[in-house]
Amino acid sequence: MKVSQMVLLAMLTAGCASEQAYDPLQDYEELDSSTLVDAPTARPGSFAPGDRDLVNRGEYLVELLGCGSCHTNGAFEGNPDMSRPLSGSRTGIAYTSPLGVRFPGIVYPGNITPDVETGIGSWSDEQIANAIRAGIGRHGKRRIATMPWQSYSRLSDDDVAAIVSYLRTVEPVRHRVPTEVAPGRRAKEGFVYFGVYRSREQ
Ligand code: HEC
Predict the structure, then answer these.
(1) Taking the CB of the first residue and of the last residue of the chain, which one, N or C, has fewer CB atoms within 10 A?
(2) pLDDT by residue (tens digit) across 31-75?
(3) SS3 of 197, please?
(4) Rounded CA separation 29/199 (Å)
């Protein structure tokens, strides 16, 4: 099948909406997609592709794999808060389509600094590895929505160990991200939506 046009959209909620003639895009603002591929980490620019040191390698991988582009607050808006990198995003990601329903389900990229209460400080290495490679939440029950764990599923054990080692060295930040919002409920915080759309025209 020929894909004639693909458009990547990312939007933020804004303002209030009228109830008549629902235009699915009326509540959204298009973001500059370049802001969405930035992947800020604690120490930007410290790439070390050949480094065998576990922590340095972990930092390199976290930067390469773009963890900060979701897990650092403000990154979606192109304004990452680098005083608190990787401490979670107050802007959520819709995992059901806001184009079809008024109030989509939303998850918030969590705090992955080693803070014990609000981050992953009390998670075991295995729990963190499972979240990254298999998208399994802490208690092993729920699938993590929207995190691109499928892309990370073939990371080697060494690479995952490096990522975990690095995450354990990041400054712990006390920051609890908003609770996820079930579909149909109105979210109190903003959110973005990632989607790929194919034109129906040939
Ligand atoms: C496209 C955005 C995105 C990217 C990129 C991303 N994550 Fe996530 N991640 C999420 C979201 C959203 C959640 C929470 C999902 C949920 O609550 O169901 C999450 C959850 C997690 C969790 C579980 C912690 C928690 O509090 O739920 C860990 C650990 C994690 N991510 C680590 C990483 C690492 C390490 C990387 C880079 C290799 C990464 N993530 C890249 C979006 C992302």
Answers:
(1) N
(2) 765 566 566 665 655 666 666 789 988 988 998 899 999 999 998
(3) strand
(4) 20
Extract the tokens encoding 153.
Answer: 């599923």
Please give the model's pTM, rounded to 2 decimal places: 0.85
Q: In whole angstroms, how large is the CA radius of gyration of the chain?
A: 18
User: How far is ligand 1, taken at its centre, from the CA of residue 110, in Å?
Assistant: 6
Nearest CA to ligand 1 atom 25: 110
Token representation of residue 84: 């608190």
Q: Give the CA angle between residues 163, 191, 151 to the nearest 5°.
A: 35
* The amino acid at 69: S
What pairing do the DSSP bridges indicate for beta strands 106-107 and 92-94?
antiparallel
User: Which ligand 1 atom sits closest to the C-alpha of 167?
Assistant: 35
